[in-house]
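User: Can you model how zinc ion sits in this protein?
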Amino acid sequence: MRIRYLGTAAAEGFPAVFCNCAACKMARELGELRTRSQALIDETLLVDLPPETYYHTVRFGIDLSAVSHLLVTHSHTDHFYAQELVNRGYKFAYGMRAKTLRIYGDETVREVFAEGTAREIKDDVRADIRFITAEPFTAFDCGGYEVYALPAKHTPSERALVYFIRKDGKGILYLNDTGLPDEGLYDFLREHKLRADLVSFDCTLGGSQEIHSGRHMNVYENAQVLEKLLRIGAAAPDVRAVITHFSHNAAPFRKDMDSLAAKFGFIAAYDGMTIEI
Ligand SMILES: [Zn+2]
Ligand SMILES: [Zn+2]
Ligand SMILES: [Zn+2]
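Assistant: Here's the modeled complex, given as structure tokens:
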């Protein structure tokens, strides 16, 4: 599997959309940016649909029409900009490679999909989109990828998900957005003998030790989770640990995130980074 990080910022982006803090000003001056988080696995399995999805297609030369399955972690706008889906067909898209798009997400994502597309979606477009409500601790097949939906610790208002994705004996554990996971997640991975070759961490808070949000993580919490995954055999000994989804409050300049990651043997994601496992 090949995972490509198309965006690596938290909800506000970096530089943040309305912000004039020192880090954001500097990021603007340097032209160093991180867009909202999204990942593409091989060519056909997409994780999340931020507002920058369109920009990602042009920046990285991605054929979004080839995507047949979309995993949505939760309904927050930085992860699910449903309105974009109205452009998937009719007179807005020709020569599409995948006829049907299957979207997986929780009940709230389903509602946001319905609300966000209600005014503009054409019947033809709607007919080629299937929404499947994903429950925590269930598995499904996404065009040859074995996908497990697991509970995130993110918001009380929604049953947000994280995902384990497996193909050809390789596994990716995608942990956005979440604070420290509950025991149930570890138990499930152990019981189902799911072992990650790559773990993608919510590192919204970067190297900050003071802030423990409970709904996102810092790098120290990432290290704690990785240590536990390794201990129970849910991560391969040579696992690649990637940190991503950085807030502007972490001043996530690339060189600083690289050195922070290096201290833990992690890899700091950047927009466009590709890893093959
Ligand atoms: Zn987020
Ligand atoms: Zn800022
Ligand atoms: Zn969120």
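A couple of observations from the model: The chain is about 25% helix and 25% strand. The CA atoms of residues 49 and 71 lie 9 Å apart.
User: Helpful, thanks.
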